[in-house]
Amino acid sequence: MFFAGMEERLVRSPDNETIAAVATPPGDGGIGIVRISGPRALSIASRIFRGRGGRSLETAPPWYLVLGLIVDPALDEPIDEVLAVQMPAGRSYTGEPTVEIHGHGGRLTIDTVLGAALRAGARLAAPGEFTKRAFLSGRLDLTQAEAVAQFIGAESESARQRALLQMRGGLADSVREIRGRLLDLIATAESALDLEDGDASEPSTTDLEALASDVRNLAALGQQGAVCGHGI
Q: Is 114 within 8 Å of 103 (Cβ atoms)?
């Protein structure tokens, strides 16, 4: 499972720490991204970002890339020329206020940018913590959160397509639909038990058999997905 402890879903305090991590794979590349997420994301990013022409990241429109420099918060020395973008709460991957810094992808450079964010007040994110926060904030349900890891690790086209469908809520929609039908049947059965005059209708055998068939089919799809993702 992508993260453990369903009880953690109840942890929705607005005082969560602001976290930061490199969001791109390790190694050299044209672009490296540092993501900062949490209630102080914008203020922390503003401590290390200097927009060209004096432009402030705090006054820039959401989702607008701003050109500037990342500087060391202690020495005020430039680290890298970057593009920075801020995303408001409820409209980011994690559901929290988020800033992404798009710099050059050399390992040393991007790690130095991350170090600047940590010195400015962020905490290093744990593995999978951005997706965990997306789940805790309600941006993703559990099936979608687990699908993120499956999508990243997909090694075949069928596995990629299945994970994408699950990320977009396909599995959750199927489970929700079956759950709704099951609740209707339970309500019908309870109504029949509560009424003593015998006028209440009982659950339809046809409906029960159809529901059981759909549950079996859904379970079979899960087994097929495991084969697609991990092989026979």
A: no
